[in-house]
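seq:
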Amino acid sequence: MSDLEAPLRPKRKKVWVDYFVQFRWILVIFVVLPISFTLYFLTYLGDVKSEMKSYKQRQKEHDENVKKVVKRLKERNPSKDGLVCTARKPWIAVGMRNVDYKRARHFEVDLSAFRNILEIDKERMIARVEPLVNMGQISRASVPMNLSLAVVAELDDLTVGGLINGYGIEGSSHIYGLFSDTVVAYEIVLADGQVVRATKDNEYSDLFYAIPWSQGTLGLLVSAEIKLIPIKEYMRLTYKPVVGNLKELAQAYIDSFAPRDGDQDNPEKVPDFVETMIYNSTEGVMMTGRYASKEEAKKKGNVINNVGWWFKPWFYQHAQTALKKGEFVEYIPTREYYHRHTRCLYWEGKLILPFADQWWFRFLLGWMMPPKVSLLKATQGEAIRNYYHEMHVIQDMLVPLYKVGDALEWVHQEMEVYPLWLCPHRLFKLPVKTMVYPEPGFEHQHYQGDTSYAQMYTDVGVYYSPGPVLRGEVFDGADAVRRMEDWLIENRGFQPQYAVSELSEKKFWRMFDGDLYEHCRKKYGAVGTFMSVYYKSKKGRKTEKEVQEAEQAHLETAYAEAT
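struct:
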């Protein structure tokens, strides 16, 4: 067996859950899709209603809602009430990690009203938004102005709060970094009810750098000021097929956006958007995009593809056609390009509704896609949830760009998941060491894609059922994730915590740096008020006793052992 061959596995006996999952499409079509469409429509009406209000009115409502949050926090009795968390139901979050910490006793603070765009400031090039504003809402408001957030995560439902407190990336992250790197100010309600504005150069600069990846465990985010960039009406997208082994595919991916001469800041050499999909161990399609004007897109001979229409082929399948017809170029309306993966949830839609990519389904029912992830989670019981944890992978591996080939080979051998999604992002060298940070001394290594101020990383998106599961073989999903986490720790990688994690506390703090985070936990009174980031991310139900004991043993935590 060669190094890249997956190990032989015995066949797995089917259980009743297999048959339920196989026919789950019935529930999805007749229950989940209609309710999802209704909720999407009601949310849209709410967004329209919000847009009809003046910025002044929205700000007035915001101030009133912040006062309610402050009042609610001050009502908490630390000796009787549980730890603070938001009032969102456990299944509403878009991430695959089930919000089990809310099943223990807790003190709820309702943030459901914080879903307005407070201001789009064209002079400062800043959008000030509340945490429940989602990507679809902000792009619908800004793109007609030829403005956009610097990083627009692909799925419509992803919220500003989730992308800041957790993890957010897009095809422009090789220029601007992760979503949180584009934020210029946070408005935070601290544990004692104090409302502060944190920026990188004011008295709360430590809090500003500690907020990303903290999962809302330092305070309650009530608004953020986010960088805007000028854009054009279309994206000129080039699809380039590549055939070779995984290391050769990895190098082609790197070459698609990182000049070998190191001129990484040259807009003539570096595209505006980058994305690659690896369809199997020998084939991939590299996509690079540049903003284009309406006049350019409509020139004779140019192809315009409105990928957002409900009857259109799913984007990943459309891109795959480059493997047969060769390299081609087309123009996609910018907002439709931003949300190109929404209808099919990348390729997860194929597992949820196996025939939903067929032309007849797209034409008849495609307008109801996608099913809301929150509703999919709400309609699965404990047995189904555990089945997906074992038989299905939704993980992102953030690795240094020069190790992407190693990561692809590891995934092929251990999981055999295809397609794989590749998206590069910068990790900036900051004045302080945050939870995720570049490798020490990276600026002296001069790896392709790196600059003196940022190391280039890449997201390897692993989303689908592993090959052994599709073949009916035995597969231990929890063990595979544990081995993935060990590989990431050994290779200076990171695992976004929206996903199901098997990390022990000691390994968690080997992967992430906790110095600044722990400093802010103590300084701003989060200890004893908000759950720690590890216990919030930890798989399984948390009892209040477990969390309280962890907080009391704060100075002797596994973090201290790990360091």
